[in-house]
Specification:
There is one protein chain. The chain is α+β, with helices and mostly antiparallel strands and 436 residues long. It is globular, with a radius of gyration of 28 Å. The strands form four sheets. Strands 2-1-13-12-11-10 form a six-stranded antiparallel beta sheet, with helices on both faces. Strands 5-9-6 form a three-stranded antiparallel beta sheet. It is 36% helix and 14% strand. Helix 5 runs antiparallel to helix 13 and helix 6 packs across helix 9.
Length: 436
Amino acid sequence: MLKKRRFSSACPPKTQFVASRWFFAVILFIFLTELARTVALPSHFQRDIHMSKLYSRRLASPLLLTLLLVLQAPASHADSASTTAPASVTGASEELALAARIDSEIAPLFKANEPGATVIVTQAGLTVFRKAYGMADVAKGLPMTPDTVMRIASISKQFTATGILMLADEGKLALDDDIRKFLPDYPSGGKRITIEHLLTHTSGIANFTNKPTFEAGMNTDQTVSQMIDSFKNDALQFEPGTRYAYSNSGYFLLGAIIEKVSGLSYAKFVEQRIFVPLGMLDSAYEGHERGSAMRAKGYTRSSAGSSFEPGKAVSMTLPYAAGALVSTVDDLARWDAAVSAGTLLKPSSQQKAFTAHVLADGKSVPYGYGWSVRKMRGMPMQSHGGGIPGFSTYALRLPEKQLYVAVLTNADRGLPGAEMIAVKAATIAVGNGFPE
């Protein structure tokens, strides 16, 4: 067991005190000299936006670093050292223990030579867990890394909904606008379908991915207009605003509205208005990537169930604004931090996105604008899952605990569910603070 270390001196108390005064006087003189030289840097350095970084490097000379270390441990505290670890050390130890608990639950779910997952857990803006499992590319033997890029599938809907709300905040559209204001050729069967109906899956427009013919042609590139033509004449499932039925068609139309209102392609809009401002370098509409991070291959469990094979090919022009984005768990954590800080939207708009939508008869549905709105063991939760050929995803946020969890897996079948992993990680992270 380590004993508490004490400092001692052979000098009598008075001699030690005088020596200390001279020592600190010399150190103070050196500090003031160095500081004067730093302040006298050329004016063009003083104007530089990175001045604070230059100043930090200037102070980091060996002599000044020694001074700073000395000043951080005054002589008056030398003999009062405690055997209790400092708060920062204690906090780091608790974080390591938490990470170990999460890892102990997740690691056994994946095999090193099979497709895997990336997982991130943040709390109050700090990353408390970040790890990758399995293979990003089984054939090449490339292991998954935490910054591996994957399709996020329907988590994309959060970005589409936020894009619509940004345009609403700017006065360029209103959520109660009839969609024919922007898509005049869209047949509505004499019914009024609003933008809000599309956002909340209450439009009655049938989901094009459920059509019997969808899978046969899903690897064929389509223009936005061609895709809309493929489902616009299908009969409405119900009167708009009276029921909830998940519809990728509705979010496809929202992408078309974003393009019409902004004058940008959907890919450029999310890049310029969301990804670039938030520093999400590895996020993009697939096919329009800007970063160079490794992309994971997508897989599915073979029909025999004994191995994994490449996932089915799909043109990302089909999921479009409903699910064609790629990202990393790191970028998704940046996204959640911006959402939590209210960076992109007015507070009232963000609140509506997290509020369960109310139908015409007064009943509420478990969906806001781009987020599922539910409770997790009594605690408010906003979340969304996604599934697309080769990938399965889930992300959740518990605002009362400032907790965010994102899970991306590179198999659409045969791996543990992304939602199950996210809920397990969140439960461990919240711990005893979770209401029963």
